[in-house]
Write the structure tokens for this entry.
Amino acid sequence: MGKIIVIDDDVDVTESVSRWLRFEQHVVDVANTAAEGAYYLKMTTYDLIILDWNLEEAVSGVDLCKEYRSRGGESLILMLTGRTSTQEVEEGLDAGADDYLKKPFLMDELSAKVRALMRRATGQRTEKTITGGDLTLKLASHELLRGGEAIDLSPLEFELLKFFMLNPDKVFSLEMIQARVWNQRDSSQAAVRKYLASLREKLCPQDSSAYIQTLHGVGYRFSPAAK
């Protein structure tokens, strides 16, 4: 299972591809414009980006790919294209795409491409960590260390903390957290609050606001330096 975003201005394509990928147990975000896709890519780290070449806007899929790579984006990119010439395919790969899939395609073809790229993504995550203050999050092994001490987290608590640690000192409303972390999984705001409370308690039983602060009426913020 991986975290994937599908960026395509064809709603039928994004609906069918996202439905297929979710059936295969992936967590999937969808964007139907370049602007929306760029926003998601700035807010979230993905294992794989499925990006349409021919976004019918001023910003093409190739442009978006170049911009993402120029910012240091490391997620693997699968380019969807109706173009057939070798020169055009090379242009997409030179822009930073890792592989391409020609339209129209069968879902089994898509699955094969995704599996191959996800294996590469898993290899890239080996030993990769995120740090914030005295917290170290190990992505490959799903471990959390606080000052060298291991803290046991549930899968959703891990995803919640990863989201915060990738976005330090940014304020997120409850609705934004629910949309970004829970995605298509069933949840209520009460459930999100419950996971937030549990995570904060595990991070620092003596002071639940040591790492994740509540800004009343606004949202929540991860500030490791505030500990």
Observations:
- The mean pLDDT is 85.
- The chain has two domains: 3-125, 129-226.
